[in-house]
Amino acid sequence: MKIPSEFLNKINDQIITLVEKYNFINNENLELKKEIDRLTVELEEVKEQQRFSVPLDDKKTEDTKQTVDQCLVMIEDCLTLVRDIQHEPR
């Protein structure tokens, strides 16, 4: 039984599309992991600075808390994106 070339071409196009989508998702995942790593390092640096710094006035303390909170929110956003991408149909 011979399969029509038109049908084979459609299958080939679908395979190419799936491979391209997989590669895109993989690249996005790598970029998100890099961003998470960068934010984690930044958060650790802030924690270290807090641990060894002289007591801060209230304004500096509040600024530092806001910076840490922003880092945590960005890390959580990145993790959510990674989860979403990983659960996308391939």
Structural notes for this entry:
With 90 residues, the protein is mainly α. It has a domain at 28-86. The chain is 86% helix and 0% strand. The longest helix has 48 residues, at 5-52. The protein is rod-shaped. The protein starts with a helix and ends with a helix.
Task: Give descriptors for this structure.
single chain, 90 residues, mainly alpha, 2 helices, 0% strand
Report the portion of residues in β strands: under 5%
How many DSSP-defined strands?
0
Name the poorly predicted regions: none
Biggest sheet features: none
Helicity, in percent?
A: over 70%
Global shape? rod-shaped
Distance linking N and C termini: 31 Å
Mean model confidence by pLDDT? 83
**If you compute it from the alpha carbons, what radius of gyration comes out, rounded to the nearest whole angstrom?**
23 Å
The ordered string of helix (H) and strand (E) elements is HH
Structural class: mainly alpha
Total helical elements: 2
Brief sketch in words of this structure:
With 90 residues, the chain is an all-alpha fold. The protein contains 2 helices and no strands.
Layout of secondary structure:
Elements: H1 5-52, H2 58-86
Helix pairs in contact: 1-2
